[in-house]
Amino acid sequence: MSEFSLIAQHFSRHQATNDIAISVGDDCAVVDVPVGHQLVICTDTMVANRHYPSDTPAHAIGHKAVAVNLSDLSAMGATPHSITLALSLPSYDEAWVADFADGLYAICDRYGVKLIGGDTTYAPTTAISVTAVGYIPKHQAITRHGAMVDDVICVSGHIGSASFALSQILQNQPSQLRDKLDYPEPQVALGQALRGYAHSMIDISDGLGQDLGHILAASGVGARLDLDKIPCHTLLEHLPFAQKYQHIINGGDDYQLCFTMNKEKFDQFQANFPHFSIHAIGEIVADGGVQLFEHGQAVAFDIKGFEHF
Amino acid sequence: MSEFSLIAQHFSRHQATNDIAISVGDDCAVVDVPVGHQLVICTDTMVANRHYPSDTPAHAIGHKAVAVNLSDLSAMGATPHSITLALSLPSYDEAWVADFADGLYAICDRYGVKLIGGDTTYAPTTAISVTAVGYIPKHQAITRHGAMVDDVICVSGHIGSASFALSQILQNQPSQLRDKLDYPEPQVALGQALRGYAHSMIDISDGLGQDLGHILAASGVGARLDLDKIPCHTLLEHLPFAQKYQHIINGGDDYQLCFTMNKEKFDQFQANFPHFSIHAIGEIVADGGVQLFEHGQAVAFDIKGFEHF
């Protein structure tokens, strides 16, 4: 199987359109960027056994490789447009590649995203790097460095589900929350809706504690987090404290958004966008890193997210 | 070593500028695209022992990972702007990463290209995926599908040098042409100069025969190639026929440009851009794939480029 036949057979579903002059099949893709917008771009890699369990279906891997990048675009408030794919495989398994492609195109099609280029190559371990391209109206990107004292800290949904699922899988137990790990849903619509509301935003990929820490470091502020206000699945609610917050604070892979905005904007947003569920879990303070509280009492907990090496 | 310290230490040299609102250090980079231009984007991956010999210095690997992508941009006639880097490593070796970063930034700086994002992760084998972003004035991209009958087929310089060097290295011989393999130079200025001249273009990464074949297939035409007109290094000139053309026709990694233009434009280009060395090596014919000639005599040779699997 040559690289070219593989691409032609599995990865050429999206051809040129109005705003994609050249798609898969040339040295590069050529794309129109809408007037008045900036280009938003990110790259994220998944390696077998490192970023997903070895028994993960190819369809889910294709989904997740796109989802984690759309999540990064969403964390800037950007509108996703297209992706490139760098796919490294230890061998050519047609059924695997077809299933992977189905998962990849399913999420792309759901968000109107086109696969416009990339390459496939041999490597001893399966690895997938996706680069995602999106757009944002000029100067409206929501960064990590805009958090302000007294901002409400919010998250977009259940935290800790993916980490809990992974812990069950690693113990060879079935998990009711397996889909949360395998098929994370990027918060694309919410990210865009938060333009003009949120002061700062990040997606939760490496753990709420560590990811919120990036906002704090970039913004030069601290945070007070109310653990009891962080939404989680009922399966996590009655776990022992250390175990529960290991998943909620230090677990990764939820791909929910964490963002800050002032109290007025928070109320306005809830009034204007009642269909989005957003949850206030604390507030930005002047300094002191992340201080944790449970029912108003300060609690100690060691924040330590995903380590890449 | 966390991913974040590694990026902060080694990959944060390019901060925000006039046209890069957000560089390394947020969920995404945010970039201005010049008015009247289209975005050009490509992704290319290098895997250790597959795309470079195991003894390749980290500095050269950093260079080459960027060079192969700038070469793809050049093959569209695009102006390179920025890159993202997906770096997978089996362990954190500070000296290796520093050397790799030096090689990567050296070629970036030479072409005014900024590293604006990406990720680093653990993987059993070293692998590097770079995505390159460039711009082109609207509707001026030079594609693979524009070749026309009677076009002159051209290349931009010596062909076969990298393949010859690789064959020496694999036989544990020193190679005078090692730099051609380790430090390929993308034809950035020539690619842009060919806007408005070339009907079709590709870069030679997998072998002249196979890469020209992509132009022919996309354009629905054939080619007559004069082997004796293909420029090569003196070290290749007196090799036995089969060996010589194995490097020149089937060898890869030269990253020269192969392009076609009509005879008038070819003469005009040489008059207007005398400082570029371009070489006519054949012509586009109606059909028949690639027909090879040597001193006017048809010769048989099996065209077979780099197989990715």
UniProtKB/TrEMBL annotation, chains A, B:
Catalytic activity reads: thiamine phosphate + ATP = thiamine diphosphate + ADP
Residue positions binding Mg(2+) 2: 44, 72
**Could you say which residues bind Mg(2+) 3 here?**
27, 72, 203
- What residues does Mg(2+) 1 bind to? 43-44, 119
EC number of the protein: 2.7.4.16
Q: Per its UniProt record, what InterPro entries does this chain match?
A: PurM-like_C_dom, PurM-like_C_sf, PurM-like_N, PurM-like_N_sf, ThiL-like
Pathway(s) this gene product operates in, as recorded in its UniProt entry: Cofactor biosynthesis; thiamine diphosphate biosynthesis; thiamine diphosphate from thiamine phosphate: step 1/1
- Residues binding Mg(2+) 4, per UniProt: 27, 72
Record keywords: ATP-binding, Kinase, Magnesium, Metal-binding, Nucleotide-binding, Thiamine biosynthesis, Transferase
Q: Specify whether Metal-binding is a keyword of the entry.
A: yes
Family membership: Belongs to the thiamine-monophosphate kinase family.
Entry protein name: Thiamine-monophosphate kinase
What does the organism's lineage look like at the top?
Bacteria, Pseudomonadati, Pseudomonadota, Gammaproteobacteria, Moraxellales
